[in-house]
């Protein structure tokens, strides 16, 4: 029932205040064991419910998918391990799985959104994080172009995609090792740049900390930096930027 329907039922006497209170105690979410599935996230934020898959058991994920499917909810699961993803897909054939990004989607595709995002990555080792960003954008219905393996060790590879990147409204740049690529991109293209450090690199990279600090100390002003390996967070930030333009147009 909607909140309006509950209030109408109380006003008409077809529902007691005790029953209404019981319903409102779990208003906006569904209890699934120790988990709570947020059924109002999309109406509040514009982003459908998202579940972080890594560290969750197959049984926990199974319950969430089943509950979402029963209610015809859109659902995105991130960071799924290969074996868990395969078994979850076997149990729920309606899930759309993507091994490259570790994402799983449930529900109708999101309507196409206005705006375009470029996802630029430094090296092939950054692919999974870049694909997490690109796959999340696709889940939001946002047109996405990819420019991969464009690191600073060979900048001619970046400029080969120059026209495509320049046509984007927002640019997500994914890089590990020295983390220098976002500074280059922000210094060349007049678009908002969201930098994603990855945990790719040798020992002194400190599992992405070196790239994170480089990006936060970028000499190109205005670079936004998300957490290490957080392609999902970068995509949500890009979506929010595009949504601001929609509301003002």
Could you characterize the architecture of this molecule?
The protein has 249 residues and is α/β, with parallel strands linked by helices. It folds into 2 domains: 104 residues, no CATH class; 133 residues, Rossmann fold (3-Layer(aba) Sandwich). The chain is 41% helix and 19% strand. The protein has a 5-stranded parallel β-sheet with strand order 8-7-9-10-11, with helices on both faces. α10 links the parallel β10 and β11. The chain is elongated, with a radius of gyration of 21 Å. 38% of the residues are buried.
Radius of gyration: 21 Å
Number of domains: 2
**What is the second-level CATH architecture of the largest domain?**
3-Layer(aba) Sandwich
CATH class of the largest domain equals Alpha Beta
CATH topology of the largest domain: Rossmann fold
Give me the count of strands: 11
Keywords:
249 residues, alpha/beta, Rossmann fold, 2 domains, 5-stranded parallel β-sheet, 41% helix, 19% strand, elongated
Give the gist of this structure:
With 249 residues, the chain is of the alpha/beta class.
Q: What's the SSE blueprint?
A:
Elements: H1 3-12, H2 17-25, E1 29-32, E2 35-38, H3 41-45, E3 49-52, H4 58-70, E4 75-78, H5 82-91, E5 96-98, E6 103-106, E7 116-121, H6 127-139, E8 143-147, H7 156-159, H8 162-166, E9 170-175, H9 181-188, E10 193-197, H10 209-216, E11 224-225, H11 231-248
Helix pairs in contact: 1-2, 6-11
């Amino acid at each position: 029932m909607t909140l309006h329907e509950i209030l109408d039922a109380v006003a008409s006497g077809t529902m007691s205040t005790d029953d209404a209170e019981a319903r409102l105690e779990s208003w906006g979410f569904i209890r699934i064991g120790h988990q709570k599935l947020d059924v109002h996230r999309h109406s509040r934020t514009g982003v459908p419910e998202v579940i972080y898959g890594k560290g969750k058991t197959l049984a926990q994920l199974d319950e969430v998918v089943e509950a979402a499917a029963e209610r015809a909810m859109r659902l995105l699961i991130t960071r799924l391990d290969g074996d868990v993803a395969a078994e979850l897909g076997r149990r729920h054939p309606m899930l759309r799985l993507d091994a490259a990004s570790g994402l799983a989607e449930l529900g109708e595709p999101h309507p196409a959104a206005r705006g375009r995002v470029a996802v630029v990555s430094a090296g092939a080792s950054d692919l999974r994080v870049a694909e997490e960003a690109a796959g999340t954008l696709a889940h939001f219905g946002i047109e996405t172009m990819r420019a991969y393996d464009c690191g600073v060790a060979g900048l001619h590879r970046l400029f080969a995609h120059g026209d495509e990147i320049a046509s984007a409204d927002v640019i997500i740049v994914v890089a590990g090792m020295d983390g220098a690529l976002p500074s280059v991109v922000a210094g060349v293209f007049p678009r908002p740049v969201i930098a994603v450090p990855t945990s790719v690199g040798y020992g002194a990279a400190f599992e992405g900390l070196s790239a994170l600090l480089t990006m936060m100390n970028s000499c190109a002003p205005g670079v936004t930096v998300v957490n290490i390996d957080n392609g999902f967070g970068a995509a949500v930030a890009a979506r929010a930027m595009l949504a601001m333009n929609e509301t003002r147009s």
